[in-house]
Amino acid sequence: MAQKELEEFDEPGLKRAIRRVWADEVAPFELRARVSAACDQFSPHATSTAARIPLMLRLRSPLYGLAAAAVILIALGLSLRYWHGPSNKSLALTLPGTLAADLVARHDSCVQLPDHHGPGFDRDDFAKIGNEMEQKLGFPVLSSNLTGSWTFHGASVCFVGNIRSAHLVFERDGKQFLSFFSLPPTAVKNSSDGAEYAEVDDRHPLAGFSTPAGFYCIVGSSTDGSLTLDQVRSMRDRLRPDVAAADTSLPFHVLAMH
Amino acid sequence: MKLSRQQFETMAVEQCDLLYRVARRLTRDSHQASDLVQETFLRALRAYETFDLQGHGIRPWLVRIMQNLHFSRSGREKRQPVLMDTVPLEHGQRGGTADPFAAQIIGWEGMDERLVRALKELPPDYQVALHLWAVEEFSYKEIADSMDVPIGTVMSRLHRARKKLGELLHDYAIEEGVIRE
Predict the structure, then answer these.
(1) What is the ipTM score, two decimals?
(2) DSSP secondary structure string, A169-207?
(3) Would residue A6 count as lying in a domain?
(4) Scanning every residue of chain A, which has its alpha carbon at the shortest distance from the alpha carbon of B163?
(5) pTM more than 0.95
(6) With contacts defined as CB-CB under 8 Å, which chain B residues touch A7?
């Protein structure tokens, strides 16, 4: 087709008008952060900034010394609380802002992927996955297998809103989907240790709990409505000790990052 | 021409705004658009090894990934072009002169608000074609590559999109005196 013939179709007035109404749209900052994180995740040498800096260099600053001392005190306090048993285990937790909607959106987006395995993470060893993600994110991760006919679709670092999270995806019979999210404790500021969360948001059952080191949430969905809040809540209660075990093994320098 | 991974990432990230704008046309929702852009980048990064910088650069390649992803996500097994898109335009229509409404609009100034509303009523395929043509300054060949259709279909879509806009804005254009009755 001759270029002249193509040019005949041009109409500068309409072009200018469309440009006026559409050209000012720019990607939101949060999206840019997500894209940068995606690039970081796929980089062949991807590791977290903290991991790239040797531990001794990080400890050279007096601030790190102070932080370490504070962490030791906090850890002692927490140990005392654990010995005496948490008194607020059944406290209800309210999620801030749009966190529930962000969790649901991330779940819906990732369960559609045929393969959710992120680069650099083991494909089937859940202990390894937990350790690798903990190293990358700096907080303990809920990384457990599910019994029954659940199929593991992979673990990856995903953004929930603008929060980097560990995300494991499972599927059963092509009808039911589950996400295990692990988020830093800052995701639910001012929550009490052991506080629990459970609700249905946009037809998705969600059940979570917080610890001093993180917030953990299971999000479910099903094409036929067969996955209930009770099922997800009992799953959360079964898996909760796995996170508690990871929590106690957390090195002090990792806690200091928060 | 094979790019280094760093070059590839830099070039891809520079297209973030473009992809977001196109995603808005496809999804009509800012949150879905953001998710679509993120998934497009993930796909693109996974497919980095297969990308070869050719004549038209990275932009049509990324938009094409986004289009495929969007249509596969929205449940269509395969994008089905509207039948009328494939019908060749008659010779006289190429310049738009056979259009009883749109061809007579003599100015688009001052119609922005109405234009936004009218644009929203167009099918996503038409919106994307118009957007790539007007805002991103894609050539017809680049639009065709991006949308995985022949150049003739691109022209059909642009022509019909413009005609539809003319119909939607017809009454208002008469009121404003920017159309010849």
Answers:
(1) 0.76
(2) EEEETTTEEEEEEEE-GGGGTTPPTT-EEEEEETTEEEE
(3) no
(4) A14
(5) no
(6) none
